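protein under study:
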Amino acid sequence: MTSELVTAVKEETIESVKNKLQINHIHHIPVIRGKHIVGMISLSDIHMMEHHFTLFHSKLAEEINQKIFSTILAQEIMTSQVIKVRDDEQLSVAVGLFEENMVHALPVVNKSGQLVGIITPMDLVRYAYDTKKLI
């Protein structure tokens, strides 16, 4: 689990969210209100938007996308029905959620519902490698 999180807020522009994803080399960003998760945005969501808005194949397309992305807010594209796991649940619960929901990141929340981390399939691979056993 990653506990040092990069997050966004609902009022943040997609341009800002995209920059955070790129600068931090991450693929998913939780959208929060206070310490509670209210949505998720993935790099795939951003790429899908780029392909929908792009009419040209050039530097011009990047400039146009940047202008468009500076007007769209995170709350407009985030997935608001977030599948999450509690920090006191067994690892098998997370594995089951990945399988059932076909997601690539699970926010981890505490008993109060506050975001405390995020787990990805790569975390599961690292765990299996470090413990020398399959889950």
